[in-house]
Amino acid sequence: xxxxxxxxGYIEITNNYFANLVGRAAQSCFGVTGMVNSNPYQSIxxxxxxxxxxxxxxxxxxVKSINGQLTIDLHISVSYGVNxxxxxxxxxxxVRYTVEEATDLKVSKVNVFIDALN
Length: 118
Prior knowledge:
The protein has 118 residues and is an alpha+beta fold. The protein has helices at 15-27, 40-49, 84-103, and strands at 2-6, 9-13, 32-35, 61-66, 69-78, 106-117.
């Protein structure tokens, strides 16, 4: 749960909302073939729900809030033969813009881990 204060009061945003928002933004970028499980909990969750990486948007997303600034970790798989540097730049810009526009919170860092090539 991410909680912050604005002039009108306190706002609480769940980690699930952030994970789905970030997952949707990352998967819409060219060259991204899916999200990859980032920890054992997500692996077990995807097996139990029997969902693929395209259906499970929060898979491979970790959002941390430190002093009102967000750090986002993404674990993705990309298409073989594409420019990885261009994909990562695109993902970082798209995720930062999407989160800042939707929540008005500052994204301090977006870490992209490429765990698979398809």
